[in-house]
């Protein structure tokens, strides 16, 4: 990718020397993959989450960014909103200039879908990689492979030492009904809605589940429970990114709200999709 303009295709190219490789360097920030030279992000062209769609660079969106957010696991770079879709070298070739597309994940003959992330820069830069959906859910037909690439920490996931009290082993997040009421206030009144961080996180989780329902209906496909949980967790985290900016939250507040929203989204999804 030598272009630095909106809608330029992402292609494969031999690795360049350190003094001329800015257009080959990327950083991860809240699921966005940002190019060092252009400051544009990886984008699924047209917003269509379907197989055989080109990957381009585009201006970062703060809302409706489902086609710009990615995760990395087991060597796959995948769409957070639909983990079945991954970055793929079109045609499986290695010719310079071959375009990158979104394609259904393959469990075999998949070398053109597997990527190794190589950190560059100082320690602080190298650790700006994380942000992936919770990796706790088994994926049908997919066996966990030993990692042959660096294992980066999944910042923002897992209960911290100061996690809010739980009852009977369950995290205390708003009920589905409470989240529905909070959702109306948060998404209609914005900053005028004076609600707790927990209720706002619940509203984000509710929005994520409803958004996933709409996505599933558009696609017309049934998804496994594991994929649904991953999808709603990723969408909930995306909503928190937007709401955290609107409410001027600190980093700690944002990370805690992200965890709460993801856990709530998984619970609400169980009710919404009846599993």
Automatic annotation (TrEMBL):
Stretches the record annotates as Disordered: 126-167, 248-275
Q: Which CDD domains match?
A: beta-trefoil_Ricin_GllA-1
Query: Which ranges are annotated Low complexity under compositional bias?
Result: 139-154
Spans traversing the lipid bilayer: none
- Biased composition of type Basic and acidic residues is found at 248-259
Which Pfam family, any one, appears in the UniProt record? DUF3759
Task: From the Swiss-Prot or TrEMBL record, give the protein name.
Answer: Uncharacterized protein
Organism whose genome encodes this protein = Rhizopus delemar (strain RA 99-880 / ATCC MYA-4621 / FGSC 9543 / NRRL 43880) (Mucormycosis agent)
